[in-house]
């Protein structure tokens, strides 16, 4: 358990051992379809496909998927509603094509979010970072991102431990105490991150690894059947989305 | 407040990615040069990125009874400077999209432009101005964190207005709508984040003064 439900789901997913490139092809294709196809029926089909694949073959817990989708859902609902409300001299009103516009916006956004969530809940970030090298991102930047990913779980654990202790001491009993506790919490996390980085550096230097934290990437071979099914499935989605 | 996946049309998503790219590439070049000169700083930079991510998990008590989360880019801009924050902020946004389902991949460019470019630069500008006008570290940090938050939110409202203009009043009307809707949460959050920054740096001044001196935020104390 890492403390982040989406990351936990990714490590436990039945697709964990699948090639990250294969999953990027599938999820990238679904995101492209979600954006490019008409909302009805294209985006609806894309969204359904992503949800069915996540909850079915990838065996992502429905509760995790549902909880993760709440954040984008809240933004999409507020954003779509705001975009179709008009403010004029007569007060508030609806835009002439309000239902169509809101439906289209919500469809594209929900389908796209579901496709990204399919990738996020089946592929740990540490599997995706080596792919950045393929996009010609400098090795130093990828390494900083990898250290960020590894350290953030340590810092999250510190954050939860300190906050639990503060809460037990009535640190959040009033708004004023809550602010003081939050400031102390942020400072504790920052100083711990510096301390952790310094100790890691000393440990690595002691082992002669002075150019950083180098690890062998795990090789997860591509599946021809998965890639074929992805291409055929995406082609079917485009055909149905455009012709229906 | 990050723009969700699929919320922007393709042309806007590409446009904002191109707008953010020079700043992120500039930040990446600075990081590459820093790491080449001092390889040990890889871990410090990674720690800075992790701190920015984790800061967004600090619950900020709200005066309305609920709670919200700081963006952390104002503190990052003061501590690590805006060019580095352009890269670290983009990495954090990528991780937020993949680990928390906040934001998205095609909207990463737009979110990076608002939160990793405009926010840190505006916050750092406010910090420098406050210090130049004679303000100490606490007022400077308050200005940096509040302005970074407000600038991020105003930029996001502008991005949404350009993508979704109002049927009657166009982009200007849509900008006013998005500003007023998100102001309900973002204005109190900006003030709260400023206060959090003051408390954060007060604790750091007491407990981590050498680090703040090394980062150039405080003058070294005269030897006794």
From TrEMBL, chain A:
Signal peptide residues on this chain, from the entry's feature table: none
InterPro entries from the UniProt entry: ABC/ECF_trnsptr_transmembrane, Cobalt_transport_CbiQ, ECF_CbiQ
Pfam families xrefs: CbiQ
GO CC terms, sorted: ATP-binding cassette (ABC) transporter complex
Membrane-spanning segments: 24-53, 73-95, 102-120, 140-162
Membrane topology, record value: Multi-pass membrane protein
The keyword Electron transport appears for this protein: no
GO BP, one annotated term: cobalt ion transport
Subcellular location: Cell membrane
PANTHER family in alphabetical order: COBALT TRANSPORT PROTEIN CBIQ
Name the record gives this protein: Cobalt/nickel transport system permease protein
From TrEMBL, chain B:
Pathway: Cofactor biosynthesis; adenosylcobalamin biosynthesis
Subunit structure as annotated in this protein's UniProt entry: Forms an energy-coupling factor (ECF) transporter complex composed of an ATP-binding protein (A component, CbiO), a transmembrane protein (T component, CbiQ) and 2 possible substrate-capture proteins (S components, CbiM and CbiN) of unknown stoichimetry.
Summary of the function given for this chain in its UniProt record: Part of the energy-coupling factor (ECF) transporter complex CbiMNOQ involved in cobalt import.
Gene: cbiM
InterPro entries linked: CbiM, CbiM/NikMN
Recorded topology in the membrane: Multi-pass membrane protein
Keyword Cell membrane applies: yes
Protein name: Cobalt transport protein CbiM
GO cellular component, one term: ATP-binding cassette (ABC) transporter complex
Family the UniProt entry places it in: Belongs to the CbiM family.
A Pfam family reported for this protein in Swiss-Prot or TrEMBL: CbiM
């Amino acid at each position: 358990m890492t403390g982040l439900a989406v990351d936990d789901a990714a490590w436990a997913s039945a697709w964990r051992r699948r090639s990250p490139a294969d999953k990027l092809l599938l999820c990238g294709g679904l995101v492209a379809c979600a954006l490019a196809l008409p909302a009805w029926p294209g985006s609806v089909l894309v969204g359904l496909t992503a949800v069915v694949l996540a909850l079915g073959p990838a065996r992502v817990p429905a509760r995790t998927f549902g909880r993760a989708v709440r954040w984008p859902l809240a933004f999409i609902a507020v954003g779509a509603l705001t975009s179709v409300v008009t403010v004029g001299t007569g007060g508030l009103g609806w835009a002439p094509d309000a239902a169509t516009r809101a439906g289209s916006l919500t469809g594209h956004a929900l389908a796209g979010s579901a496709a990204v969530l399919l990738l996020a809940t089946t592929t740990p970030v540490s599997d995706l970072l080596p792919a950045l090298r393929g996009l010609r991102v400098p090795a130093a930047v990828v390494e900083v991102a990898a250290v960020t990913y590894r350290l953030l779980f340590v810092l999250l654990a510190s954050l939860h431990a300190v906050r639990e202790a503060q809460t037990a001491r009535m640190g959040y009993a009033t708004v004023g105490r809550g602010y003081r506790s939050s400031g102390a919490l942020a400072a504790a996390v920052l100083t711990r991150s510096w301390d952790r980085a310094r100790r890691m550096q000393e440990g690595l230097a002691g082992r002669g690894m002075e150019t950083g934290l180098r690890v062998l990437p795990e090789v997860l071979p591509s599946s021809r059947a998965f890639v074929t099914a992805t291409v055929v499935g995406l082609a079917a989605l485009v055909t149905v989305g455009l012709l229906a | 407040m990050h723009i969700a996946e699929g919320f922007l049309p393709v042309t806007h998503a590409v446009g904002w990615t191109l707008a953010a790219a020079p700043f992120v590439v500039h930040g990446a070049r600075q990081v590459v040069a820093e790491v080449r000169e001092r390889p040990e700083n890889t871990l410090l930079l990674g720690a800075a990125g992790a701190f920015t991510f984790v800061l967004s998990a600090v619950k900020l008590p709200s005066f309305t009874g609920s709670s919200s989360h700081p963006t952390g880019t104002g503190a990052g801009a003061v501590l690590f400077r805006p060019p580095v924050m352009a890269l670290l902020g983009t990495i954090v946004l990528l991780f937020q999209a993949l680990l928390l389902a906040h934001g998205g991949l095609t909207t990463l460019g737009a979110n990076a432009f608002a939160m990793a470019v405009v926010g840190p630069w505006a916050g750092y500008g406010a910090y420098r101005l406050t210090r130049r006008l004679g303000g100490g570290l606490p007022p400077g940090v308050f200005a940096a964190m509040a302005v970074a938050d407000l600038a991020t939110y105003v930029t996001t409202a502008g991005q949404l207005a350009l993508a979704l203009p109002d049927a009657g009043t166009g982009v200007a009307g849509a900008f006013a709508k998005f500003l007023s809707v998100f102001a309900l949460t973002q204005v109190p959050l900006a003030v709260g984040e400023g206060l959090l920054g003051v408390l954060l740096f007060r604790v750091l001044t007491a407990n981590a003064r050498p680090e703040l001196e090394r980062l150039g935020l405080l003058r070294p104390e005269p030897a006794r």
